[in-house]
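Section 5.1 Outputs to date
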Amino acid sequence: MGSKGSKPRKPQHSQHLPKVGTKPDIEREMHEERKGVVDAIGLGGAPSWLKYVVIAIGVLLLVTALFAWIF
């Protein structure tokens, strides 16, 4: 028996996961995959503007390399 101030067994904000294969499940998995990729390259806690700058620099380097290879 728990006392009045004891911690509840289950948090009040817990939710069940959606059924496998449903649209909410697919969206949740895609979100977690994107987050995992961003964490893997070291930008997990970075602000969104920094992520866009890194992507822009990567695209610029790719286009420059492509033109250097062609010409």
